[in-house]
Amino acid sequence: MIILIFFVVHWYTSLFFQSVFHHRYAAHGMFTASKFVERLFYIGCYITQGSTYISARAYGILHRLHHAHTDTEEDPHSPFNSPNLLTMMWDTRNNYYSIYKGRIEVPQKYLKDLPDWKSFDKFAHNWISRLTWVAAYTTFYIVFATAWWQFLFLPLTMFMGSLQGAMVNWWAHRFGYVNFPQDNASKNIIPFDFIFWGESFHNNHHKFPGRPNNQYKWFEVDMGFQMMRFLHWLGIIKLKHAPVS
Prior knowledge:
Blueprint: H1 2-27, E1 31-33, H2 35-49, H3 56-68, H4 85-100, H5 118-124, H6 127-144, H7 154-158, H8 160-171, H9 202-207, H10 223-234, E2 237-239
Antiparallel strand pairs: 1-2
Helix pairs in contact: 1-2, 1-3, 1-8, 3-4
C-alpha cells in the first residue's frame, strides 16, 4: 500500500510541476511570479522529478520550437519524426540536450523571458544527482515493497518526468478527438482529464497556446488551470490576461 500511495503522489506532484512550471510558465509565460517563488518551483521540480529533472529554461526553448514547427521535420518532439514512443523519447532527449548544452543556435525570439537558475541546474542536472535519486528510489522500494509486482513501478518511478512528457506528446498527436481542425495533428486525448492535469487537451492548447485554461467544452476540466487559479487567488502567482473563471 505504501508503494502505491507513493507512486500516485509522485505521479501527480511531478506532473504538477512539469505542467504548471515548465510548460505554462517557462514555455508560455502564462503567469508571473517573484524570483523567490520561481526558485521554489525549481526546487519543487527537483524533488518531484528526481532522476528525470530537466532545466526549465531548456524545456521552455524546446517547447516553443515545438509550437513553431508542430509536426514538421523541425519539430523537436513530434511522433511523426520517430517510428515509436521509445525512439521519440530518445530523439526528444537528444534535442533537449542540444539546447541545454548550447550545441544549436536558437533564434533570439525563442529566448525571451525564460527562467534561468544556472547554479541550481548545475547542481541538479548531472549524472551524480540522477544516480543518487535512482539509489534512493531503489532503497525505498526495497524497504517498503510488500510484493514482487510492486517493483514493476520502480522503472516508472525512475523515468517519471520523461515518461509523462512523452505520453502526452505521443498520444496527443496520435489519438483522441478534435475540437479545432488545424494544420497539425494535435488532439485531445481524453474528454475528462483526471490523469494529466489538463495537459491532455492538447488540441485546445494548440489552438490557444497562450490561454491558461485548456478547457473548451463543459466536460473538459483543466486541473492545472484550477491550481494556477488557486495560486493566483493566494497571491503566489499572477495570471496574465487570463480568464480566471
